[in-house]
Amino acid sequence: MSSPKTLYDKIIDRHRILSFGGPEGAGERLLLYIDRTVLNEYTSPQAFSGLREAGRKLWRPAASLGVVDHVNSTAPLREDGKVDAGARRQIEYLVENGRDFGIEIFDVLHPRQGIEHVVMPELGLVLPGLVIAAGDSHSTTYGAFGVVGFGIGTSDIEHLLASQTLVYRRLKTMRITVDGELAPGVTAKDVIMEVIRRIGADGAAGHAVEFAGAAIEAMGVEARMTICNMAVECGARVALMAPDDKVVAYVAKGPRAPSPAMLDRARESWLDLHSDAEARFDAEFFLAAGDVPPMVSWGTSPDQALAITDQVPDPADMPSGRRDDAARAIAYMGLESHMPLQDVAIDRAFIGSCTNARLSDIRDAARILKGRRVAPGVRAMISPGSSTVRRAAEAEGLDRIFTDAGFEWRQSGCSLCLAMNDDMLAPGERCASSTNRNFEGRQGVGGRTHLMSPAMVAAAAVTGKLADVRSLPMLEPL
Amino acid sequence: MERFLRLAGGIAAMPGANIDTDVIMPKAFLKGIDRSGLAEGLFHDLRFDADGRRPDFILNRADMTDTRFLLAGPNFGCGSSREHAVWGMLQYGIRAIVGTSFGAIFSDNAANNGLLLLSLPPSDIAMLSDMLDDGSGQMTIDLERERIEIADRIIRFAVDPAVRQALMQGLDRIGETLTHADRIRAFEQAYFADNPWLAEPSAQ
């Protein structure tokens, strides 16, 4: 009998074309088959130019989908224009590359346009057991389906397009077990933010992380995507969860999913994708779900976060290695040590991004907003994760809840998560944000980002300050 | 890519933890479809503010004219996958970064473009840092002998042999992989037979 294996190693084994040697296990260098990729307009152009210069074709064009998401406008009325010249050229070049290389492209006006990591799963293209590498760090999102998903740079995109492979080094493995039950008002976003706070921004560096435990099993597929998505913020190169029947059902809804007959054949093999009971991980971390509070970030790295009921920390209380970074972050964020986080007033509120803009996220925020109004002086925006999500939310009447509350109901795109389009913070503006990165300047030069769950963003929007969602009961049922 | 064998030059210390690729190459410089013009973008918002050049930033100091190396804090290059961060580094003239750990995608991007990343134990980083004068100094990296020479000291390092070979010889990675085209095709055939639901991706 072969030795027990982790889910990660099983999937890598199935995609290994040949080994270039190195140690057995972590560190092995191999040629890895990549099932699918998604291309965006800002990290793919130079890859296509490289192929053109070398006269190379795509190995398997049907394995790629192109989506415009990073630079497009999210103005409420969808138009193709409204972008600067650079963005315009990037969008045109993606469309041109799709035509010349035989790749399907969802351009700005396509009815299924959206953020790549929302679009791929909702189409039913993310199937358990696959390896999906793509030119965006949040490709870890696909791990919620039992997929080895990871981000790559442009040179590797070119390599992948030309050969359907990557030269790959096998990772170490880590298991993060989240047992117990989440408290009311606490979401998947809070779980991953607490994990990142506890293990640090490089706590999972060099590892493929498998999330397990009762709290993960109890979550819906979209909540699981939030966790796998943001696992990259603690350095995880891959995030994974064993697929179950919720995943199979999610896939089956997608318009590009395998046919029902094929799904029946696939199901048994998909549900067999899990780590063996005796499998050993290089590292383990345990978290009790019941101990996780609603979280907010206070600094400029995702591990600089605390419970909403806490205070801005004092660098003097921190280990010497973290003191200077914390002091710098507090100064950049315009905060004072010992100030209660719930006293921090905001200028902007944003719900969006590949982390938290799916239908379940929008419902979570709508529950808080129904019957309430955005606080005076706060500009609040929501950009649904995809045009499909936007339509589904409108069909439930959720758009009216947002607009009645004073939110701008916008079109889909990466938007204010990284501010590559015209959605950005002015210097010094402070934003409650359902996104993934609170880096300096991420949402605009001098902008100040506080990360939190969509419901917590809604709570902040209506109170005008960072707020504890648990103090805002649902006023009316959805 | 430019080969790396042995190189002497200035080193500048940027000791903060978790310096991310948004800071290394801000969004304003990501709107191209080629790789040009990124030297200006490197650390742009640390180098410049609304009033112009920020004299306090290390790369702006008068004594920093021949900077080839950076001394970085932990988890340097974390965050976004943007390869522009590595392109900008090379276009600015930075050829190697010495630190304890690096963002994983940034690491791969660096290897693919000939930017040498050296991971050293914290004790070596502390020693190197102590040898610098107000965060800067001169040193040599010898990749063939896997050592840093600074003043009268030698600090040894080890680089992934595959990365080292590529940096020293400048390989055509895609061409190399495509010599295995028959193996890839044979793999695909067996793989699709085992997983027939994958044979028709993107069915309309």
Radius of gyration of chain A using CA atoms only: 22 Å
Tell me, what's the shape of chain A? globular
Query: Assembly type of the shown chains?
Result: heterodimer
The amount of beta strand of chain B, in percent, is 15-25%
Poorly predicted regions of chain B are none
Give the terminus-to-terminus CA distance of chain A. Answer: 54 Å
Largest sheet of chain A: 5 strands, parallel
Radius of gyration of chain B: 20 Å
Mean pLDDT of chain B: 94
Count of DSSP-assigned helices of chain B: 8
Structural class, from helix and strand content of chain B? alpha/beta
Low-confidence stretches of chain A: none
Content-based structural category of chain A: alpha/beta
How does the major sheet of chain B shape up?
7 strands, mixed
Strand order of the largest sheet of chain A: 17-16-15-18-19
Number of helices of chain A: 15
Provide the helix percentage of chain A.
25-40%
The amount of beta strand of chain A, in percent, is 15-25%
Would you report the number of β strands of chain B? Answer: 9
